[in-house]
Specification:
Elements lengths: L6 H8 L8 E6 L2 E5 L11 E5 L4 E4 L9 H5 L8 E4 L5 H4 L9 E2 L24 H9 L32 E2 L5 E3 L4 E6 L8 E5 L4 E5 L13 H13 L4 E4 L7 H15 L1
Parallel strand pairs: 4-5, 6-7, 11-12
Antiparallel strand pairs: 1-2, 2-3, 3-4, 8-9, 9-10, 10-11
This protein binds zinc ion (2 copies).
The site of one zinc ion (ZN) has 7 residues, from helix 3.
Length: 269
């Protein structure tokens, strides 16, 4: 079978400069946003490190291009245990999960952590199925460049050798479960629609919500069941929050969350 990418593009990928793969930004006391600035914006998810008095929580793990665990440990007191929670099992949120000892996810997506065959498990546009690319374009994403990275994480990294590493779940999280960090804790809320097992993590004490891809301030993707997504958006519109840290794009507050919910309920409902 002929290579859909082509030798010229693969050579260009291999010649990309090496750069610091991760960027971290403290957004609130004990809350750090971690991103992969050298990925195409479509694949650039937000990872969240939340520090507690007894243990820390890392939500999501990016694409699995650069090594994540050493970077995360450099941001925190690495003598504390780290609990790794997945908002859902899409590749831009789970690629680095194999690096961590605990991997907690909703039961509806636990099996997806063992897969390696996501259509997006590539750094080359022309290896992404056309129907998937058309779907992103229809939801308002700009056309993809032929290379989905503009740097490499280390000298020996060959973009053509990039694969998704399976990372079986070590535990399950469902509606109403708690993730306790000591000085603060989070309640799991099940938010299906973008995906079947999408979860949010809500600290009712201060109104902080980590929402995964159920809601963020950019084009939402109804990859799961639409009727579930409408129920999720209605639930989010009623939820009392102070700040929402989503799986993509910038964080926002209660009023903006209600606007986004109303917008999509109007479009999809
Ligand atoms: Zn995502
Ligand atoms: Zn997703």
């Amino acid at each position: 079978m002929s290579d859909p990418v082509g030798a010229e593009v693969r050579a260009r990928a291999l010649a990309l400069p090496v750069a610091e793969w991760w960027r971290a930004e403290t957004v609130a006391p004990g809350v750090t946003k971690i991103v992969e600035p050298h990925l195409d914006p479509l694949l650039q998810a937000n990872l969240w490190l939340v520090e507690g008095s007894e243990r820390d929580m890392l939500i999501d793990s990016g694409m699995g291009v650069g090594r994540l665990a050493p970077f995360v440990d450099g941001l925190r007191d690495a003598s504390r245990p780290l609990v790794h929670v997945l908002s859902h099992a899409h590749i831009d949120h789970m690629g680095g999960s194999w690096e961590f000892d605990t991997r907690l996810i909703h039961p509806a997506e636990a099996a997806d952590l063992e897969k390696t065959d996501s259509g997006l498990a590539t750094l080359f546009r022309d290896e992404i199925p056309q129907a998937m690319r058309d779907g992103f374009a229809a939801e308002g994403y700009r056309p993809l460049p032929d290379l989905l990275i503009d740097a490499r994480p280390f000298e020996a990294f060959d973009p053509s050798a990039y694969r998704l590493t399976p990372a079986p779940a070590t535990g399950l999280l469902g509606e109403g479960d708690r993730v306790e960090l000591g000085s603060r804790g989070f309640t799991v809320i099940h938010l299906p629609g973008h995906s079947a097992g999408g979860i949010g993590l809500l600290d009712e004490a201060d109104g902080t919500l980590f929402s995964g891809d159920a809601i963020y301030d950019g084009p939402l993707l109804p990859i799961g069941v639409m009727s579930d997504y409408l129920v999720t958006l209605e639930r989010l519109a009623r939820l009392s929050v102070s700040v929402v840290h989503g799986g993509h794009d910038a964080s926002f507050g209660q009023e903006r969350m209600r606007e986004i919910c109303a917008d999509y309920l109007g479009r999809w409902g």
